Structure prediction request, 225 residues.
Amino acid sequence: MDNRPGVKGAGTARNTGLEHAFGKYIFFADADDTLCPDFPIALSDYMDKEYDIVFFLSTSSAAADGSHKGRHLPYYRLVNDYLHTPSPKSELRLRYKFCVPWAKLYRHDFLDENHLRFDATHRSEDLYFSTLAGSLAKCIAADARVVYCVNYNDNSLTASVDRQSLFHHYKAENRCYYYMERKLGPRKMKLLGYSPASHLTVRLRSIKIRMYELKHGRIKCKDRI
Prediction:
């Protein structure tokens, strides 16, 4: 496997893996996380199915001592709500709020047909990928089995916060917001928890991002973000 110099990060690593991957389904797992005992049986149950995405339950623990952590909880609740109270709202939230690639089974052809790849950034490379995948999937399913454990580490990329990381994160969040705003319209945006004030917040953040890019020479004055 190759990792091109100067374009390193989780996004590039996953994209490189996708270039070499084969088989009907793709499951993304971070190097420091673990697969749960139900993983093999749960995945084998879908080998003859045609879902674009299957959402699973997950758990999380501290890498240092194995104590319970809450990193998985937002995504656990999304799957759980969809399973126990299926509705247009719970499906919409599952599709657009499950903004990490793990604990999901993706149909390989679905990713290739829609040219779905990760951003080549050091942080938040998966936000836009997850938003697009959730939006474009025609057939989804949710499974009540816990198949994935996030091992929380204080020194991991997700835990560390610096100015450049925040820049990448906010830029990815804005990109997702504008995509959803165009795709969904006001009523569905409200179901996702966004209000008219959210648009103003995103616009102000866009100005800050532009100022950061101008200051650090990332764009010219006439460029748009």
